[in-house]
Design brief:
This protein has 288 residues and is an alpha/beta fold. It is built from 9 helices and 12 strands. The strands form 3 sheets. An 8-stranded parallel beta barrel has the order 1-2-5-6-7-8-9-12, surrounded by 4 helices. It has a two-stranded antiparallel ribbon with strand order 3-4. A two-stranded antiparallel ribbon has the order 10-11. The model has no long low-confidence stretch (mean pLDDT 96).
Length: 288
């Protein structure tokens, strides 16, 4: 039995944060990850709204584990032609390149107020020649790490299929350059799969496993003709979640596994679909 805490990205259920807190408590999910609520990206929320998040989580005995920010999820100026194969979803955020230092500071402030140990960040919208931007992006990330240093908050760099570091190989390579006191990896094997990498064992073996600080869980199958993902219940697709979780435990990972449903749910009922996925993820973790 794996002793890994399970969390949920709350807006995968609903924009009604209080309702999601209640559902998480009923499901036995101890942790919450905040990206949007009440129709707002977390970085656009006022201090009063941030207090409301914390009060609701505390009332239901849930811990906020991560501020799922859109930091560095934008176009890199002079980075080259953006790869338009991937959907660019910033979740009700539209911050430009010049705003990134400011919104990183705000994300760190919010994480401190919420007592969340991680702020999730990205690596700019992927271009058709991503390797040419490797050093430049690594330098920008290093600057961000300096901003986070001393705050007690770790930046979690996520492999995102629409961004430069999409696969286990790519995120593992840049992680080895970044200061471990400032950065960990948010490992999302489904994103690696959508980017064309076999999530298990290939992606898992290539990611710097000792740098994983947080895990996102969703599942899909990939259409062989179009390359498009069909999202589904966790464990029902080709990501290999039982193997992923077992391998994480074997490597000594003890952090959270946070549900990011994506599946539209039975009959288009995403709330019900997220509850189904949460139960499946809890079972997979329990049985690992």
């Amino acid at each position: 039995m794996a002793d890994l805490p399970v969390g949920v990205i709350t807006d995968e259920f609903s924009q009604d944060f209080e309702r999601v807190c209640s559902t998480a408590a009923a499901l036995g999910v101890p942790e919450l990850e905040i990206r949007t609520a009440w129709g707002k990206n977390v970085l656009d929320m006022s201090d009063r709204e941030i207090r409301r998040l914390k009060d609701a989580a505390d009332h239901h005995g849930r811990r906020i584990i991560c501020v799922a920010s859109p930091v560095y999820k934008c176009v890199l100026p002079d980075g080259g032609e953006v790869d338009e194969r991937f959907h660019h979803d910033a979740f009700q955020a539209s911050f430009g390149f010049d705003e990134q230092p400011k919104i990183l500071d705000r994300a760190l402030q919010i994480a401190t107020r919420l007592e969340a140990p991680f702020v999730r960040v990205f690596s700019f919208w992927r271009t058709v020649e991503p390797d040419r931007n490797f050093d430049r992006i690594a330098e920008i990330l290093e600057d961000g790490g300096e901003a986070a240093r001393g705050t007690g908050i770790l930046l979690g760099l996520e492999n995102e299929h629409a961004c430069h570091f999409a696969t286990g190989e790519e995120i593992g390579r840049v992680a080895r350059r970044l200061d471990p006191e400032a950065y960990g990896i948010v490992w999302d094997p489904a994103n690696a799969c959508v980017a064309g990498e076999r999530a298990y064992p290939d992606g898992f073996e290539r990611v710097a496993c000792d740098r994983i600080c947080h895990v996102h869980a969703k599942d899909c199958t990939i259409d062989r003709k179009t390359g498009e993902p069909a999202w589904c219940d966790v464990g029902a697709g080709q990501i290999g979640w039982p193997e992923q979780v077992a391998a994480l435990v074997e490597k000594g990972y003890s952090g959270s596994v946070s549900l990011e449903t994506h599946w539209g749910g039975p009959g288009g009922d995403k709330y019900a679909g997220s509850a189904i996925c949460a139960k499946s993820l809890l079972r997979i973790v329990r049985e690992a």
